[in-house]
Design goal:
With 119 residues, the chain is α+β, with helices and mostly antiparallel strands. The protein is 45% helix and 13% strand. The protein has a three-stranded antiparallel sheet. Keywords: DNA-binding, Transcription, Transcription regulation.
Length: 119
């Protein structure tokens, strides 16, 4: 039995960042945005944090729930900042805790960019 959660590929009101890679060559701006997204996810700790947020119940996670990735708390904060700067996460402070969500267009955008290769 798998605990994997199936996420929607595209929500009707969400516009992905770029066309599928096999549709046409990316423009310079699209390539910059796409590269920043994949560069941010190329670090194993960042990928784990992104996955922890994306798969967390309710679609958001408190930093206190996702910080057990084998690095110090300041390093977790650094990596979360990099994910936010790349436009992959949004955050909201509630009292002393910060809650993170995956930017809605990100999963749709990743799916769309990879096109047929995502299937």
């Amino acid at each position: 039995m798998s605990n994997a959660k199936v996420l929607p590929l595209l929500e009707p009101d969400i516009v992905p960042c770029c066309p599928p890679l096999n549709e046409r060559p990316l423009t310079a701006d699209e390539a910059v945005r796409t590269a920043a997204m994949f560069k941010a996810l190329s670090d194993p700790v960042r990928l784990r944090l992104f996955s922890a947020v994306a798969s967390h119940e309710g679609g958001e996670a408190c930093v206190c729930d996702i910080s057990d990735v084998g690095v110090s708390q300041p390093t977790v904060s650094h990596h979360l900042k990099k994910l936010k700067e790349a436009g992959l996460l949004t955050s909201e402070r509630r009292g002393t805790w910060v809650y993170y969500r995956v930017e809605p267009s990100v999963l749709a955008g990743m799916s769309k960019v990879l096109g047929q290769y995502a299937a």
